[in-house]
Amino acid sequence: MRIYPAKPNSVYLYGTCLVDMFDPEAGLDAISLLEQQGLKVIFIEKQTCCGQPAYSSGYTKEAKCVAQHQMDLFIEPWPVVVLSGSCGGMMHHHYRRMFQGDGTQAQVEQFCDRVFELTEFLVNVCRIKLEDKGDMTSVVMHTSCAARREMNVHVTATQLLNQLDNVELKEQDYESECCGFGGTFAVRHPNISQAMVEDKTRHLAKTNAAVLVSADWGCLLNINGAFEYQGQSMQGRHLASFLLERTGGK
Amino acid sequence: MGHVPAGPELFHAQANAALKDPQLRQNFRGAMDYLQDKRKNAFVDPVEEDKIRTLCESIRKRCLSKLPELLEQLDANCTRNGIQVHWAQNDKEANNIIANIAQSHKARTMIKGKSMVSEEIELNHEMAKLGIECLESDMGEYIVQLDGDKPSHIIMPAIHKNKQEVSDTFEKHLDDFTPTVDVDELIQTGRTRLRQKFHDADIGLSGVNFAVAETGTLCLVENEGNGRMCTTVPKVHIAITGIEKVVEFLSDVPPLYSALTRSATGQAITTYFNMISSPRKRGELDGPVEVHLVLLDNGRTQAYQDEEMRKTLQCIRCGACMNHCPVYTRIGGHAYGTVYPGPIGKIISPHLMGLDNTKELVTASSLCGACGEVCPVRIPIPEMLQRLRTEAKNPPKPDAMPMKGQASAASTLESLAMKGFAFAATNPNLYHRGAWSATKLRGLVPNNMGPWTQCRTSPKLANKTLHQLIKARNKQAGDK
Ligand code: SF4
Q1: Nearest to A54 among B19, B421, B439 (CB)
Q2: For residue B303, pLDDT beyond 50
Q3: Are the beta carbons of B459 and A194 separated by less than 8 Å?
Q4: Any idea of the CA torsion for B383, B389, B393, B394, to the nearest 10 degrees?
Q5: Distance B262 CA to ligand 1 centre (A)
Q6: B342 CA closest ligand 1 atom index
Q7: CA B78 to chain centre
Q8: Which numbered atom of ligand 1 lies nearest the CA of B347?
Q9: Which terminal Cβ of chain A has fewer Cβ within 10 Å, N or C?
Q10: Model pTM?
Q11: Contact B428 A47 (CB under 8 A)
Q12: What is the ipTM score, two decimals?
């Protein structure tokens, strides 16, 4: 179990490349949520991507280059809050592994220890209390595999949704099963990926929830794209935006 | 008729064929749901589960850390007990050893308990060439053999079939069989047909679940009793195992056994647990007069030599990783074209068959981690896959031994693309200009993006990047 620090005054925000390009609003909404907690949020201009695409494809050398570049940007000892369980897992766990046996490992580990996924940070560091100002609604949540299995933050994401009095959290069949994205997997093995995402969208749709949320844009690209292809109206959004909206911050 | 998988190099074609077979997909989904449920009910207390996994991992790690010594100790103690020990580098040597034993007894028939290692060396096929008939006696293997098929799961070889299909197989191959979907009746049919064969067989062959170095004991885990028949009724018993199955102490066995059965089928214990420590002793009424142990390497030392990949050998072959794998669930075991399918197959097969033959397998995972989450000996399968992907793309490090098939997936184009990615991701200006122009030109995203858009619309870029929005936000705050 992870030991969490006391609430700091300032945090870094790691937006991730997918939020940057596909849902920048979610980035702003996360900043608002964190500011509501009395934190100063610093967004480093020069951040790019955590390097996962190269890492999971077997290009460790390139991934290490990218990782080193990111780590060098976050010099103050503040927490680095990441808007994705998958990139969080990369930066919290896999950076350690990549630099194992290198002279810099101790420093790398110090950085990794400062990496938090948004929901775990809100729950375990900020000890956030949400006040639901929205109408009655129902929501179904999808958690990425890394969020669930590497970061254990499906727990904290659920805790946040459970704090919302007027939101009914629906459970889907095969909740913990992968949506079939897996980065390049979706392209290298398109037919297997298709079988997986079709099942996933079917289970999600079957809940009849009004809203789909996730804290991972990788999965959302996959799931939303499939829903739209099938002509279904369900579209997932980032959990940060949903939370901000429910609590009247928007 | 079952379909015989051709090989891992045809993975794409085989997987696609399986995906298009609704009955097969339904069979696998049903079976995997059932097995997942069984495992869940066997590990109700997560704290206990955690403890067991940690214990079993440490046992396997300790035993592997002393593998060479333990193998020698096993050899010495087995020999002392009267078990004849043979070492085989590869499939060919193993088959030769077994053929020699068979021929020295003028054997014509061999009855087999379940042994994946014998599948690995294609024993049945090789013995047939010498006129020795091998008959599978594990019910699942028996069904698969009748079909001229191969196992699709390491614990449940015929899991790709439902009751109706088993009945069809029996109807096609057995005289006097009245079709039925009553499972007990189906099993009874198989049992009766096999009974006489145990008596008639010249040799019994089995696998090994744990080989205990301390005592020279071979442990065999099974449910049907055919393993016991194979290892006691015929005059000669041959056990074959991969070298990694050795454990140090007898006391290492109970925790591993418990973790194995609970992970595999959700059983607390199996119906049978056999411990074989010697051939028949003077005055004993039954048991084989000769017991042989064949220790097979077949690429395992390659995994052993690399400290990280050595974890692969911790495997106790419970099959939980495949039972929980979303890819395996959808394509089934045959698609892999390897003896060991699913997640464990993806990480062990490259050592057995070379990365050149298995490079498609190591990419066929979304790295979702479901396998690692259930593995009773905590093999970090996704990490192993990532490592194998790296080895498939890159030449060996100067100080490392090359892997079989090393760098066989190297692609100039992809490697250039990744270098480009790394260059952009370490040059923020370039990166942001890229993201910026992507959002600017978002109207130009094509509707057809190859494989991605075969079941999804193309991703929709926002009209401004987060970087731009934050700049504007900060400016606004500054203006106030
Ligand atoms: S890798 Fe782990 S889960 Fe898979 S068969 Fe081996 S021991 Fe079981």
Answers
A1: B421
A2: yes
A3: no
A4: 30
A5: 12
A6: 4
A7: 27
A8: 1
A9: N
A10: 0.95
A11: yes
A12: 0.95
